[in-house]
């Protein structure tokens, strides 16, 4: 099965079509990096599984108009949720590392560094007054108040029995 860059970029363009500010996935220059990441994925058959799933969902996308491409990708998401989730992560991470996208984000006034390099994310100390949850859902425990859980009541649970 042919799994060149075009089918991947077509899926990426459905997920990241671009607008007046942000480039589309195909216009961002991410194609080669996306293809490399897909081929370097620990699941070596990921490209083949993806293209088979696209065909099963109604593809290939190359000859379809944009609304039908979106429908095929939506079907793919429903029929192969784990595969779709993995592909979406790879696409999004690759897109937001492109210099063209980083430039747009920075032009919006947001300090943005490609993770983890060159500068990574700024590490700021946790400020209990400012960072603690203000809503009344759940709670947090300060690190110095964390205690071990007593597991002695589980002694009768032995491995292999």
Structure overview:
There is one protein chain. This protein has a domain of 103 residues. The chain has 161 residues and is mainly alpha-helical. It has 7 helices and no strands.
Chain-wise SSE layout:
Blueprint: H1 5-15, H2 31-40, H3 46-56, H4 66-79, H5 81-95, H6 99-107, H7 128-131
Helix pairs in contact: 1-2, 1-4, 2-5, 4-5
What characteristics describe this protein?
161 residues, extended, mainly alpha, 46% helix, 7 helices, single chain
Gist of the model:
It is built from 7 helices and no strands.
Let me know the largest β-sheet. Answer: none
Average pLDDT, all residues: 84
The percent range for strand residues is under 5%
Number of strands: 0
General form: extended
Instruction: For the record, give the distance between the C-alpha atoms at the N and C termini, rounded to a whole number.
Output: 48 Å
Structural class: mainly alpha
CA radius of gyration is: 22 Å
**Helical proportion, percent range:** 40-55%
SSE ordering: HHHHHHH
């Amino acid at each position: 099965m042919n799994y060149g860059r075009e089918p991947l970029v077509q899926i990426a363009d459905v997920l990241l079509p671009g607008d007046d500010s942000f480039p589309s996935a195909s216009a961002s220059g991410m194609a080669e990096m996306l293809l490399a990441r897909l081929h370097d994925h620990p699941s070596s058959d990921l490209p083949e599984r993806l293209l088979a799933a696209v065909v099963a969902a109604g593809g290939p996308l190359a000859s379809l108009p944009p609304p039908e491409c979106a429908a095929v990708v939506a079907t793919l998401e429903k029929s192969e949720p784990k595969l779709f989730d993995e592909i979406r992560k790879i696409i999004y991470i690759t897109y937001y590392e492109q210099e063209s996208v980083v430039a747009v984000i920075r032009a919006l006034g947001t300090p943005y560094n490609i993770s983890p390099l060159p500068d990574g994310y700024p590490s700021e100390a946790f400020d209990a007054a400012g960072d603690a949850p203000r809503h009344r859902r759940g709670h947090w425990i300060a690190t110095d108040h964390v205690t071990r859980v007593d597991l002695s009541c589980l002694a009768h649970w032995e491995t292999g029995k």
